Automatic annotation (TrEMBL):
This is Succinate--CoA ligase [ADP-forming] subunit beta. GO terms for biological process: succinyl-CoA metabolic process; tricarboxylic acid cycle. Residues 9-231 form the ATP-grasp domain. The gene is sucC. PROSITE patterns: ATP_GRASP (PS50975), SUCCINYL_COA_LIG_3 (PS01217). Mg(2+) binds at residues 199, 213. GO terms for molecular function: ATP binding; magnesium ion binding; malate-CoA ligase activity; succinate-CoA ligase (ADP-forming) activity; succinate-CoA ligase (GDP-forming) activity. One of its GO terms (cellular component) is succinate-CoA ligase complex. Its cofactor is Mg(2+). It is an enzyme of class 6 (ligase).
Length: 389
């Protein structure tokens, strides 16, 4: 689960992490009121969306007067911000963060994440702040330093020294870096974060190390023990289809392609997406209906897929192990009866009760193409979609 920058900063502040003063605003009036309350010489108006790259897209404005705060708030609220992280459709701005401006001396990059390789929390640090870390990694990998924290000892003084050395910080700033790493690590563990990115971490002209931006993701499997974090969820930032799917406990991820997929098992779902790609089309979603899906679940999944206007064809690929093919067949037919079948449908069933499943579909009178194996199924649906285009 992701949260907004202003929420992430509030969470970090609970752990004593230094951030600029700021107030969230949901309207132009609130933005002006916030700026008056902050009463700083320089104010930053920041669009709050669940995506980075706002600065380059005009979503972060450093201004000097209340009039300009008002002007930028008017411009941003309700506008669609397109950044390199939002995709071409962009995201609508509903919230702003009004922040006290900082006089920046240096900008750095710092992040922490769960590193599956080492099974530990790893930190990534670089002098190249404000840039995309992916670019830095590709072009100047020597400017990135990473280290992992042994859970038995936690953050040690040598970690602080490594960060200070990497960022060229001396004296009091080195001390601040050491303290900061400890606090960020504490927050990361206490809140079950999966990713924490401070880009940029800055040194101000008056010698303070502060977090100017903050992006945090949380481990969804641990949300049950963080009601305070769950309360920060902003559903307007999430895909409607994914919200609907989560109500039925379906593992669904919306994608940009044209072929809707209904598959059981994450591995088979990935293989299905790959083979669709291999034959020249793209999947519209990842969907694992799970091992023990009920008829209702299958019906819900089918409705979510057909509601996506990008879907030009559907491929159902089920290997019935625990899941029975006849249950899938009944779910599909129930769904088609309810929502119709506006696009070609290819079904490949295999495993438990496969004959019964095929019979149910064959006798339904529906215009369904049946396929024998994964290869056959992918070729048939790609051909059907290309033929329709
Ligand atoms: P992002 O583009 O979505 O990552 O948004 P950021 O919060 O990182 O802001 C983008 C850029 O705006 C930063 O890299 C800074 O260069 C600049 N910026 C943000 N806040 C301030 C500030 O208080 N003072 C100054 N001078 N620049 C700022
Ligand atoms: Mn940033």
């Amino acid at each position: 689960m992701n949260i907004h920058e202003y929420q992430a900063k509030a969470v970090l502040r609970e752990f004593g992490v230094p951030t600029p003063r700021g107030i969230a605003a949901f309207s132009v009036e609130e933005a002006v009121k916030a700026a008056n309350e902050l009463a700083s010489a320089v104010t930053v108006v920041k669009a709050q969306i669940h995506a980075g790259g706002r600065g380059k897209a005009g979503g972060v404005k450093v201004v000097k007067t209340i009039e300009d705060v008002e002007k930028e708030a008017k411009r941003l609220l309700g506008s669609i911000l397109v950044t390199h992280q939002t995709g071409p459709r962009g995201k609508e701005v509903h919230r702003l963060y009004i922040e006290e401006g900082s006089a920046i001396d240096k900008e750095f990059y710092l992040s922490a994440l769960v590193d599956r390789g080492t099974g530990r929390v790893s930190f990534v640090v670089s002098t190249e702040g404000g840039m995309d870390i992916e670019h830095v990694a590709a072009e100047t990998p020597e400017k990135i330093v990473s280290f992992s924290i042994d859970p038995a000892t936690g953050v040690m003084p040598h970690h602080g020294r490594l960060v200070a050395r990497t960022l060229g910080l001396k004296g009091d700033l080195a001390k601040q870096a050491d303290v900061l790493i400890g606090k960020l690590h504490e927050a990361f563990l206490a809140k079950d974060m999966s990713m924490l990115e401070i880009n940029p971490l800055v040194v101000t002209k008056d010698g303070k190390l502060i977090c100017l931006d903050a992006k945090v993701s949380f481990d969804s499997n641990a949300l049950y023990r963080h009601p305070d974090i769950v309360a920060l969820r902003d559903l307007t930032e999430e895909d409607e289809k994914e919200i609907e799917a989560s109500k039925y406990d379906l593992n669904y991820i919306a994608l940009d392609g044209t072929i809707g997929c209904m598959v059981n098992g994450a591995g088979l779902a990935m293989a299905t997406m790959d083979i669709i790609k291999l034959y020249g089309e793209s999947p519209a979603n990842f969907l694992d209906v799970g091992g023990g899906a009920s008829k209702d679940k299958v019906t819900a999944a089918f409705k979510i897929i057909t509601a996506d206007p990008n879907v030009k064809g559907i491929l159902i690929n089920i290997f019935g192990g625990i899941m029975r093919c006849d249950v899938i067949a009944e779910g599909v037919i129930a769904a088609v009866k309810e929502v119709g079948l506006p696009v070609p449908l290819v079904v490949r069933l295999e495993g438990t009760n496969v004959e019964l499943g095929k019979k149910i579909i064959a006798e339904s009178g529906l215009n369904v193409v049946s396929a024998d194996d994964l290869d056959d199924a992918a070729q048939k649906i790609v051909k059907a979609v290309k033929g329709a285009a």
